Amino acid sequence: MREAVLGGYDTKLVKFHPQEKDAEEPILALVYIATPQNPSYLGPASEEDIAAQIIVSSGCAGHNIEYLLRLADFMRYFCPQAEDKHLFSIEEALISILPCLYCTEESPEETESVPQKSKG
């Protein structure tokens, strides 16, 4: 919905080849690719810059922090054979930045609600 409304994305129909052995045909998948016309387009960026962008971004479906963390968890638990180093590097950068957003005069024990990277 967001990509269709905001614009600034190219849409491509691509063939997705499932890894299941019983999958006979590729599945057509719709992919959105951000373009420089997109106001949120970073262009080539480090994982840290991407994480910083995610931290300040949200939409009608929720905050992008949650989207990233759920995507990384999904990939880790349901597609463990498809190691996505870029995704997990962004997740790691985001998690390293998050405690800075919760800096207070409280002791670390009082800020246990800060999300921690899951082991896996």
TrEMBL record:
Keyword line: Lyase, Transferase
Signal peptide coordinates: none
UniProt EC number: 4.3.2.7
Gene Ontology biological-process entries: glutathione catabolic process
Coiled-coil stretches noted in the UniProt entry, renumbered to this chain: none
Keyword Ribonucleoprotein tagged: no
A single Gene Ontology CC term: cytoplasm
GO molecular function terms attached to this record: gamma-glutamylcyclotransferase activity; glutathione specific gamma-glutamylcyclotransferase activity; transferase activity
Catalysis performed (reactions): glutathione = L-cysteinylglycine + 5-oxo-L-proline
PANTHER family: CATION TRANSPORT PROTEIN CHAC-RELATED, GLUTATHIONE-SPECIFIC GAMMA-GLUTAMYLCYCLOTRANSFERASE 1
Family to which the UniProt record says this protein belongs: Belongs to the gamma-glutamylcyclotransferase family.
Cited function: Catalyzes the cleavage of glutathione into 5-oxo-L-proline and a Cys-Gly dipeptide. Acts specifically on glutathione, but not on other gamma-glutamyl peptides.
Protein known as: Gamma-glutamylcyclotransferase
Species, as recorded: Columba livia (Rock dove)
